[in-house]
Design a protein that fits this description.
It is a single chain. The chain is an alpha+beta fold and about 80 residues long. It has a domain of about 55 residues. It has 2 helices and 3 strands; from the N terminus they run αβαββ. The chain has a 3-stranded antiparallel sheet, with helices on one face. A hairpin with a 2-residue loop joins strand 2 and strand 3. The longest helix has 17 residues.
Length: about 80
């Protein structure tokens, strides 16, 4: 992620700390995670990719990622994982 602004990386790390607390155990069942916030397209892509990569490195399988709402700089995303 070195090619992106350090602000994006810092924000992604802060969000990851919050997201990690809410992840369900690896029990073979499907679970969902919703993220939302005020972002522009570039920084949100960096942040969302960071979260998904961290989940995969911890052994979670990403089943689906859906953009479920968007307004002026407000993005909501649903991640389905197991």
């Amino acid at each position: 992620m070195g090619v992106f602004s350090k602000d994006y990386e810092k924000e992604a790390e802060e969000l990851w700390k919050e997201v990690e607390k809410d992840l369900r155990p690896k029990d073979g069942l499907k679970h969902t995670l919703m993220t939302s916030g005020h972002y522009d397209g570039t920084d949100y892509n960096v942040i969302l990719n960071y979260i998904i990569e961290k989940m995969q490195k911890q052994g979670f399988s990403i089943i689906d990622v859906k953009l479920i709402g968007e307004g002026y700089r407000w993005i909501r995303t649903l991640v389905t994982y197991e």
